[in-house]
Amino acid sequence: PLIEKSTTALNDAIKAASDSEAGTKMLKAVEDLQLADRFEKLAAAPPCDLSKGDATDKLSCIGSTIANQLSRSIKGSPGAANQLSVGMDGGDIPVLPFGAILACVFLGMVLRIVFGRQRFMRKSLSSFTARTAIFIAFFAFVIGVNKQGEAAMKSMDASQGPNFLPVTKLATGGPYEHTRHPMYACVMLLVPAVAMLADSLYMAAAMSLVPLYLDRYVIPAEEALLQKLFGGSFDEYAATVPRWFMGVGPEVLLVALIVCLIRMLKPKAHQLSGLKFYYFPVAARGDCARLALTLRKIRFKDMVIPPSEWGDLKPKTPWSSMPYVELSSGTVLGQSYAIFRLIGKGTGLYPEDAILAARVDECMDGLSDVGSVTNKTGQGLTGAEKLKKRGAACKEGGDIYVACERIEACYARAATPGPFLTGELSIADLQVFAQVGWATSG
Ligand SMILES: N[C@@H](CCC(=O)N[C@@H](CS)C(=O)NCC(=O)O)C(=O)O
After folding, report:
1. What UniProt keywords are attached to this protein's entry (predicted)?
2. Which CATH superfamily is domain 275-440 in?
3. Residue ranges covered by each domain of the chain
4. Which of 285, 313, 427 to mutate to test the pocket of ligand 1 (most atoms within 8 A of CB)?
């Protein structure tokens, strides 16, 4: 039904095109190219030897081999008594392996387009040059083995060869000493090679179907033919040489693929997960970080350091002060604003947009000024005297009042709807909350 539907759609499109002047011209040009005839001619060319002739001969040999395989995959081909027949409808094998590879590459590309990219490679290896180099290395090895396999077949009888030509003699030398199907064993390598080239897990999944298809449909048909043609000598050969190289068949690929999928589905631990946050047991400079981590449900260890232990710890800290953090990777970082920004970036509480990020920084630096002015006010004084000084600074026109007014002005300049500086909650808003709590907590 799918083929019927697409044929109807194609016919409708051709009819629609032929109704317009430009369309008629285009169809005529395509007709003049005589693509179908050329393809038929190419597909019907006699088998060629890729290692012979100049570059043009090699190119036309590749072209005719591909055309031949495609044509047989699509149209099918009857086999002689010593040859397999190909064809979806009643052939010994439904599709030639080459056709199956092309179909799976196509499937991999469609899955990639539909579901988006799902990387297959480690970041360090995923540059296009590295991927191409790996693919070329794999591919060169595959070609090498195929050549040796072909030579082993031809050494028995020059008329036989790969690509489903008639079989006359059993080839057991060269790579056939290690596996009964060296060319198919190479497809096992081609699966990761193509998946790496595309750097796509979907390509890996689609390509894994090829060895499975070979194992379930193609190899049994081939071996049944060989058994029919050579009887006992094939049985003897099959008893000593495994089907797949070292017995590594498509099941191994499937297991590898399942492991990849499980790894993909398993949620990655958050970059900040397991972070240790060191600070005093007070709601002050460290609160912005504690709030951000708690709000975003990041698993962290709140390392509350009582003042009695600070003396011993101080010389071991990066800036002789708190807060400081230790990431699960072992990295230690100090300075509260650097920590706030790190946590903000890791929790989506720091804007990605450079201008909005600068607005957050601007407000945070203003809040730092509020802290400095507060600390400076009444420095050296204690008790009621200090309280009086600070109280005066908080009155209209006082230093602390003015510093706080600038924060309000910063919010007003941002002119975003709602209570937050950038329109969405950010570390600046949390720091305002923390700073107010710090100032009013005594
Ligand atoms: N610039 C530092 C200042 C840190 C700071 O002064 N922390 C205070 C606590 S709020 C501290 O560690 N005081 C104890 C000390 O200096 O020994 C930062 O922003 O992290």
Report:
1. Lipid biosynthesis, Lipid metabolism, Membrane, Phospholipid biosynthesis, Phospholipid metabolism, Transmembrane, Transmembrane helix
2. Glutaredoxin (3.40.30.10)
3. 81-265, 275-440
4. 285
